[in-house]
Amino acid sequence: MTVGRYAPSPSGRMHLGNLCCCLLAWLSAKSRGGRVVLRIEDLDAARCPRAFADLLEADLAWLGLSADEGGSRGGPHAPYYQSECAALYRQAFDRLAGQGLLYPCFCTRSQLHAASAPHRSDGQVIYPGTCRGLTPAQAAEKARVRPPAWRVRVPDEEIGFVDGHLGPYRENLAADCGDFFVRRADGVFAYQLAVVVDDARMGVTEVVRGADLLSSTPRQLWLYRVLELEPPAFCHLPLLLAPDGRRLSKRDGDVSLEHLQARYTPEQIIGRLAYVCGLQKAPDPRTPAELADGFRWDKVPRQDIRLPEGLF
Ligand code: GLU
Question: What pLDDT is stored for residue 246 in this prediction?
Answer without folding.
Answer: 87
